């Protein structure tokens, strides 16, 4: 994925029409850069081998974790938080929230869980979602 | 590097006292997340094995490339650009510019060039720069 021009995360996010459907907008080494619009709650899952970075553009992201893992984290615009591999988590937002993500290219959207929210990598690479 | 709290890229950058001295603020998989303040011009160099992602927080980043590689690129706040491995490049900014970078943990600051700007990974991990 050779990038020709600078890409605005905000504009890339604005172009999304569907909630909870990440779109790949770039790649650095073995990591995809993605954007997503979210509102409501995403199923609990984990990635055994891969960390996941969340960067908030608009709104507020709640990352749920068990009490043993430190409990929920709230991420605001301009802030990032990395969920380490192996940590069970979910994401939610009460208002429409725009986020960027950095994930290993092999990361599965909902970890080992198959849910109605699950999007394949092919879907995440498709234009016009 | 286990992250305890969300981190604001803007505040992390504001805390830097020295130009051209990246500070590691996070890690996702085998990639470091760094912030830097820059102004003026950084030496030409390349990374043969590693892509480098630049995200601009404030100001304007100019990424110089040879004409054969497409020439210079200008990156504005909220935009990112990935310089692919093997592409000779330099970075410059006419005004003070705040950036975040994502680079493989093994990436050398000035590639194969040793310059007065070169900072070791240990220096980039040190607090209070």
UniProtKB/TrEMBL annotation, chains A, B:
SUPFAM superfamilies: RmlC-like cupins. It holds the Pfam family Cupin_2. InterPro entries: Cupin_2, PKS_Associated_Protein, RmlC-like_jellyroll, RmlC_Cupin_sf. Residues 39-97 form the Cupin type-2 domain. Gene3D superfamilies: Jelly Rolls. This is Cupin domain. It comes from Edaphobacter aggregans.
């Amino acid at each position: 994925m050779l990038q020709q021009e600078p890409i605005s995360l905000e504009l890339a996010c604005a172009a999304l029409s569907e909630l909870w459907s990440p779109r790949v907008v770039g790649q650095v080494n073995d990591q995809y850069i993605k954007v997503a619009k979210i509102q409501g709650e995403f199923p609990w899952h984990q990635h055994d081998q891969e960390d996941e970075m969340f960067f908030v553009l608009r709104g507020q992201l709640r990352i749920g974790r068990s009490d043993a893992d430190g409990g929920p984290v709230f991420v605001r615009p301009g802030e990032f938080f990395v969920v380490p591999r192996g940590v069970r988590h979910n994401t939610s937002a009460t208002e429409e929230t725009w986020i960027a993500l950095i994930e290993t290219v092999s990361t599965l959207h909902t970890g080992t869980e198959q849910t109605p929210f699950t999007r394949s990598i092919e879907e995440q690479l498709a234009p016009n979602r």
